[in-house]
Amino acid sequence: MSIFLLLGFLCYGFAIIDFAGIFFGYDLTGTPFSPIAAIFLGSMLIKMGGGEEEGEEESPGLDSEGSAKGEYDLATAEDYSEAIRLEPDDAVHWHNRGLVYLTKGEWDQAINDYSEAIRLELVDYFVWHNRGIAYSMNGNYAQAIKDYSEAIKLESDNAESWRYRGEAYKELGDEVKAKADFLKAEELEAKAKSKP
User: Fold this and answer.
1) Is residue 164 within 8 Å of residue 188, measured between CB atoms?
2) What distance in Å separates the CA atoms of residue 70 and residue 146, rounded to the nearest whole number?
């Protein structure tokens, strides 16, 4: 096994652990978007470790827009597309495909799929939080704030949504609200760390 493959799988492992930390209210890195960055980096390293096909001119593991690519991601998106074709009213399929698009950096597709999951009345913290991430990455901070606020209504003790909403406020120049959200995130992290 090459060092690139090993490092790539370690990045995937870190992303899973960091996503789990977010779920349970622990901030493992203190850096917004770190699980997504770890997935991108892992994809690039795995692609580098597996070698490029002859004749390819793109950077290893990246498409022309700088997003992670790979057969696994494409197969997963195709699988969820097939599931959606068979069960178009199943909001979970839309949510899951939205997550694939989010990890690939395809913000508009992620927003569309999360919006459809919401329209189908999937009441889930991650739908709102992840659509907020996609809106933030797309530069639509006002809509991201609305989505992070909905996520906070569902899980008010999750520090990540507070921090991400603070980042969105900061991008819009609202330092007062940004600071309040950052302080709340720190408070929740300290509380989570003090639990046995």
Assistant:
1) no
2) 32
Which pLDDT belongs to residue 40? 57
Smallest CA-to-CA distance from 130 within 106, 152, 147 is with 147
Maximum Cα–Cα distance for the chain, whole Å? Answer: 55
Q: Whole-structure pTM over 0.85, yes or no?
A: no
Distances (CA, A) of 140 to 66, 131, 155: 20, 11, 22
Could you state, in order of their start, the residue ranges of all structural domains in the chain? 1-69
Cβ atoms 11, 38 nearer than 8 A: yes
Q: What is the DSSP string of 13-57?
A: HHHHHHHHHHHTT--SSS-TTHHHHHHHHHHHHHHHHH-PPTT--
Each residue of 63-76: pLDDT tens digit? Answer: 433 344 444 444 57
Tokens 């709102």 map to which residue? 128
Neighbours of 169 (CB within 10 A): 23
Residue from 108, 92, 99, 86 nearest 19 by CA? 99
Contact 159, 25 (CB under 8 A): yes
Q: How far apart are CA 111 and CA 135, in angstroms?
A: 7
The Cα–Cα gap between 122 and 94 comes to: 10
- 89, amino acid identity: D
